[in-house]
Amino acid sequence: MWQRETFKKIKQVPGEEHVLPGSALCAGCGGLESLRLATKVLGDEVVYVNAAGCFTMLAAYPYTSFKGSWLYTTMGSAPAGAQGVRDALDVLIAKGRLPKSDNLKVVVLGGDGSTYDMALSSTSGAMHRGLDFYYFCYDNEAYGNTGMQLSPATPYGARTATSPCSLQHPSGAAQEKKDIFEIWRAHKPPYIATVAPRYPLDLEEKFARAAAFTGPKMFLALAACPTGWLYDPGETPEVAKLAVETGLWPLKEAIDGVVTHTYVPKRKPVEAYLKLQGRFRHLFEPIVQTEAIQHIQARVDAYWERATREGS
Amino acid sequence: MYAVRFHGRGGQGAKTASRILGTAAFLSGYQAQDSPIYGAERRGAPVSAFTRFGREPIRERGGMAHPDLVVVADASLLEDPAARLSDGITEQTILFVNSPLHAEQIRAQSALPGRITTLGVTEIALQHFGQREAISALLGAVAARLAGLQQEPLRQAIARELGDLGVAPPIIERNQTVALMCYESVQVMARESVALPATIATTFHTPVYESPSRGTARISATGNSVLRETGGWRTFRPVLVADKCNGCWLCFVYCPDGVISMNTDDRPVIDYDHCKGCQICVHECPTHALVAEREQEGGVAWTAR
């Protein structure tokens, strides 16, 4: 049974803010909610290496929300940028030009378009080289910054700008969501975790635990997205909660490749989650697409059966 | 050619309203064109959209320097220089403002030269749909009336555009009914065409090469985004009912923008200069100590302190 050691009570969430307000991110952004909580553990002694995406808006000239440093890269090269920053810091420290006490953490910020798609080879390379960095993926399951086009993170059945509901594809996206957690795990980095904004203590605990490891520390954050998933911005925590409670977004970690589920939900029917969002409305109106909903449910069931069998 | 410029905040439906008007004009037999413009900003930030229609082919593209009609979806934009609402407005321009206030009151506040007409479209939407952002069809209807289009093509245009967005048929029907109410209610202004000024002189600038250290945007400050206020994004503000608060911290924890802090008595303090009004705190408060109140006079988005 997984237990939190550092963060046991909600009042342990640090009060100091490290991502300041005034950014152009959407009201109710689930990705920002996750990042804000993560930075409460990461602190300000950080260089963020940001792949192009929604989070670009956090440091749009001439304003930055970060108290730490920030470097902008293309969608495909943030982990390579992180390698350069890490190497520069190491060299400066080795030559005595930077005191060891001024060392900085290197944190990649990438959306799912970058993480699952364009930067996959660059991330694989960074993990393979054992780069000492954090990777924070804010996963809103589509290319959100450009208007919600299908990405490899888009789940089956979701309507996006490029997976509309048509006679050929009445249920929206025909592909399954890519399992990036397992792709990462195949590289055996010391630490991987999934987090969701509605589970702040689980999130804080995982960042606190990750700090003990040297090497790639990979995070996959559910970025519930009112703009793209089409629900009221105030419902972001509710949507994130249902993603976890239906079993669609498992909260887990992998230490040296060994998986532990940090929370095992009782698993509500997936409809509870799907119904809340406009991107799945076509599954219920004008006719209920039972087959598509059952397909989504069956995949969740299969996932958890395997997880139970493997005792993770 | 008749030119209509829509101003709204991201999420209010200015773009869809512009599409509805364009489609209604097309269905009326006009040549029509519509396009939105938004920067990297998001929900709540100023956006505009342009609809042009006429009997002749439309050659003009892009931004709209000389609108005949300007539709303002959110009265707070009147005060917001970032919205560039006054661009090209003359005495002849018809200016529609979504506000329950009378046109004279708006005129007294805004000092814009156009001929102003108003209707409280958001109030009508709240009354009929219970939702604050369902105003695209209603704005489209108001624009169609002011631009002299008929009801039937408007009805069809609403069905088409909302249908494309995946809105369910019963809701489309309700939108059509309420939109036609707005169509009937808005006070019509006589149509006058804007005389285009003489050709604008064009000058060309050749960019000079600068090394990356000068030519790349760099921010040499930390955390200066607080200089920019996003309070004007709100339609509703969260307000604390102090005696209901049990000091649980959840509003502080869940606020994505970090605009809620806890005071020494464990009560939330909300930074209204930056709160974007997402209502997460209102939704998540277990004791209903945070309630949503409609913003009466919108603040100013994107002002620098």
Task: Give a verbal description of the structure.
The complex is a heterodimer of chains A (312) and B (305). Chain A is 32% helix and 15% strand. Chain A has a single domain (10-309), classed as 3-Layer(aba) Sandwich (Rossmann fold), CATH 3.40.50.970. Chain A contains 10 helices and 8 strands. The radius of gyration of chain A is 19 Å and the shape is globular. Chain A has 312 residues and is of the alpha/beta class. In chain B, helix 2 (103-110) links the parallel strand 5 and strand 6. In chain B, helix 4 (136-146) runs antiparallel to helix 5 (151-164) and helix 4 runs parallel beside helix 6. Chain B folds into 2 domains: 2-185, Pyruvate-ferredoxin Oxidoreductase, domain 3 (3-Layer(aba) Sandwich), CATH 3.40.920.10; 226-304, Alpha-Beta Plaits. In chain B, the strands form 4 sheets. Chain B has a 6-stranded mixed β-sheet with strand order 2-3-1-4-5-6, with helices on both faces. Chain B has a two-stranded antiparallel sheet with strand order 7-12. The radius of gyration of chain B is 22 Å and the shape is globular. Chain B has 305 residues and is of the alpha/beta class. Chain A: This is 2-ketoisovalerate ferredoxin reductase, beta subunit. Chain A: Pfam families: TPP_enzyme_C.
Name the features.
heterodimer; A: 312 residues; alpha/beta; 8 strands; B: 305 residues; Pyruvate-ferredoxin Oxidoreductase, domain 3; 2 domains; 9 helices; globular; disordered C terminus
Assembly state: heterodimer
- Low-pLDDT parts of chain B are 298-305
Strand order of the largest sheet of chain B: 2-3-1-4-5-6
Total number of strands of chain A: 8
Coarse morphology of chain B: globular
Number of strands of chain B: 12
Determine and state the CATH class of chain A.
Alpha Beta
End-to-end Cα distance of chain B, whole Å, is 41 Å
Number of domains of chain B: 2
| Rg value of chain A | 19 Å
Mean pLDDT of chain B: 87
Order of H and E elements of chain B:
EHEEEEHEHHHHHEEHEEHEE
CATH class division of the largest domain in chain B: Alpha Beta
So how many helices of chain A? 10
DSSP strand content of chain A: 15-25%
Helical content of chain A, roughly? 25-40%
Q: Write the CATH architecture name of chain A.
A: 3-Layer(aba) Sandwich
Helix-strand pattern of chain A: HEEHEHHEHEHEHHEEHH
